[in-house]
Every structure is written in structure tokens, then in C-alpha cells.
Amino acid sequence: MGSWVAPTAYLLGAGWFFAACIIAGVLVGRWADRATGLEPVFTLIGIILGLAVALAGGFRMLQQFMKNLGNGTSEKS
Q1: Which residues touch 21 (CB under 8 Å, ≥6 apart)?
Q2: Taking the model in full, what pTM does it have?
Q3: How many Cβ atoms from other residues are within 10 Å of residue 8's Cβ?
Q4: Considering its fold, how many domains does the chain have in total?
């Protein structure tokens, strides 16, 4: 296979991580809104927290990816 497979798989995993964090924040926020009756409050908090976790974790993942890319470890065929 080509040398593009490993970087593509890694970035695809990072994309799934971003999506999962944001969706989980929305779902937990919606659940908390229904439980408390404060309709948009917890959904907005969940979105913000999901984005914060996605950005922090995604930054760490991409930082490691760039480090591996610079070392040439992700370019094995």
C-alpha cells in the first residue's frame, strides 16, 4: 500500500474523536435539560464542553501526529 494510508487513518480517527466529543456533549446536555427543565442551558454548556474537549484532545492527537510525521515513522509502506 501507499505511504498515505497510515496518515489518512490517523486523521480519520482524529475526525471521529472531534465528532464524538461534540455529539456526546450535545446528548448529555439535552438529557440534563429534560431532567431539570432548563431547556437550552445545559445543551449550550454541553456544546461548549464538547468543543473544549475536542479541541484539547484533538490538539494533543495532531501534535503527536506531526511529531511522528517529522520522524518518518508514519510513512512505512
Answers
A1: 50, 51, 53, 54, 57
A2: 0.79
A3: 11
A4: 1
